[in-house]
Amino acid sequence: MPFSIAIHGGAGTILREQMTPELQREIEAALEKSVRAGQDILSSGGSAVDAVTAAVKVLEDSPHFNAGRGSVLTHREMVEMDASIMSGKGKNAGAIAGVKHIRNPIELAKAVMEDSEHVFLIGEGAESFAFEHDFLYTEQDYFYTDRRYDQLQSMKEKGLFALSEFRYPDDNKYGTVGAVALDQYGDLAAATSTGGITNKQYGRVGDSAVIGAGTWAENQVVAVSTTGMGEYFLQENVAADLAARVRYLNETVGQAADHIIQGELKDRGGEGGLIAMDKSGNAYFAMNSSGMYRASIDPRGKCKIRIYADQD
Question: For residue 44, what pLDDT is reported?
């Protein structure tokens, strides 16, 4: 069977004029490290679930992406992280939201899927489950970066939840990371992880932790991970809707992705994108924004890394 993997590091307004060569090299290197981590597992006969977990962990460990180490800060200057994972085989899934002391949230989502009777755990309960299953307690200091602190102060001054000025090339990017994969056994999987939105309050949770909105995997149909304005992706149930269009309307994955991202979602003002993989291991990238950090390794082993929307 062919096998392949694709990843994303968030979509939104990513400006060439703000991107330095050094920063671009660092981001592209992290994307390549992520996609190759997943590919290494697939090529050695590993599962799609393990591949997407490994790929997302690399992005969570990088300060360049809004997940894990590089997560944005809440109104109270804390990090609250969400993640979800789904296996196309049997449609098993796991999700967590609002965790503050877990270094790699995607690993916890995977543990919920594999080691609990539940699908979705939140906050203190999710962390209690984590520590009972030998996850290490990680201090908040680990997640702090100067960039995210500066972003929060800028937004607090203006009373905003979306940035109106740019200090970095992707300040107005909806920071989520994700991966989709097909393994040698024909199984699909998808995973998504995020730090949410800067200056969020009230325990806000977006689409990344929600099975059907931010993550979906169904064998012989599609695997999907989304990134964008979470409230719109929740309302449109984007990931599951894409799968339904493939299943019931016999659309290709590309047709279904474009219909949602360029049609219904865009018409409502929902900016963002998604990555999807069909049952043959073909990766699709759809976005209605100026860019999306993304990379893929196709069934022939060819690696592609892209940032801007106008790159094929």
Answer: 98
Tell me: is residue 228 an annotated ligand-binding position: yes
What six digits make up the tokens of 181? Answer: 């994969």
> How many domains is the chain partitioned into structurally?
1
| Confidence (pLDDT) at 173 | 61
- Residue 14 DSSP class: -
- Exposed / middle / buried, residue 301 (Cβ in 10 Å: 0-12, 13-18, 19+): exposed
Q: Enumerate the H helices of the chain as residue ranges.
A: 21-43, 48-60, 105-115, 123-132, 146-158, 230-236, 238-249, 253-259, 265-267
Confirm whether residue 269 is marked as ligand binding: no
What domain range includes position 260? 4-308
- This prediction has a pTM of 0.94
Question: Which residue in the list 13, 53, 74, 176 is annotated as catalytic?
Answer: 176
45: which DSSP letter? Answer: T
Domain of residue 104, CATH code = 3.60.20.30
Residues 93-117 have pLDDT tens digits of 999 999 999 999 999 999 999 999 9
Does 176 participate in catalysis according to the annotation?
yes
Mean pLDDT of all residues in the chain? 92
Residue 205 assigned as binding residue = yes
